[in-house]
Specification:
The protein is α+β, with helices and mostly antiparallel strands. The chain has one domain (about 1-175): Cyclic phosphodiesterase (Cyclic Phosphodiesterase, Chain: A, Alpha-Beta Complex), CATH 3.90.1140. It has helices spanning about 10-20, 50-60, 95-110, 130-140; strands spanning about 1-10, 30, 35-45, 65-80, 80-90, 120-125, 145-150, 155-165, 165-175. The protein has a 5-stranded antiparallel beta sheet with strand order 2-6-5-4-7. It is globular.
């Protein structure tokens, strides 16, 4: 079995800006900068044959490259407590188009459709028993965070390996996005 997800590997400039935020919040387990990414589709554990079907289906995805902008911070909640801190990504049409294409490819490979609404973000930290007022203050103090635009010219099938220090991600395959797709069609 292999644990997979599809995402965007972030350019160095974005990872450096995000890594600079990794301080000042008690009980935060910060994502290591080399693991920072934007998830397009979580897949979970599948067997090797299904993983190969997913890879083949993703290989057929055609979508344009685009500029990624990060904008503001937020949290995911569990009850009254925040359990994750994230940086939001602007919902540009090209990002949403790519996410839809990836979703279709994964469903074509035999997986059930993703029931959750897509909220493009980069997880910065996992929070466990972080004081609510400190989380709120941290988000408020950093909510004007913006980074980018940075060009995204490919997407990635990642595997996730769980260890004591958290998950570590490995790029299993990269899929190119097309530059100026469509501008030269129909001639």
């Amino acid at each position: 079995m292999i644990r997979l997800f599809v995402g965007l590997a972030l350019p160095d400039a974005l990872r450096e800006r995000l890594a600079a935020l990794a301080c000042g919040l008690p009980n935060a387990r910060w994502v290591e900068d080399h693991n920072l990414h934007l998830t397009l589709r979580f897949i979970g554990e599948v067997d090797e044959a299904t993983g190969q079907d997913i890879h083949e289906s993703l290989s057929a995805v055609r979508a344009p490259s685009f500029d990624l902008m990060l904008d503001g911070l937020g949290t995911f909640q569990s009850g009254r407590r925040a359990n994750a801190l994230w940086a939001g990504a602007e919902r540009v049409p090209e990002l949403l188009h790519l996410r839809d294409k990836v979703e279709s490819a994964v469903v074509r490979a035999g997986l059930a459709p993703e029931p959750r609404r897509f909220l493009p973000h980069v997880t910065l930290a996992r929070l466990k028993d972080a004081p609510v007022h400190r989380v709120q203050s941290y988000v408020a103090a950093n909510n004007l965070f913006r980074a980018g635009p940075e060009r995204i010219d490919h997407f990635v099938l990642f595997s996730s390996h769980l260890g004591r220090a958290g998950a570590d991600y490995t790029a299993e395959a990269e899929y190119p996005l097309k530059v100026d797709m469509g501008k030269h069609q129909g001639h």
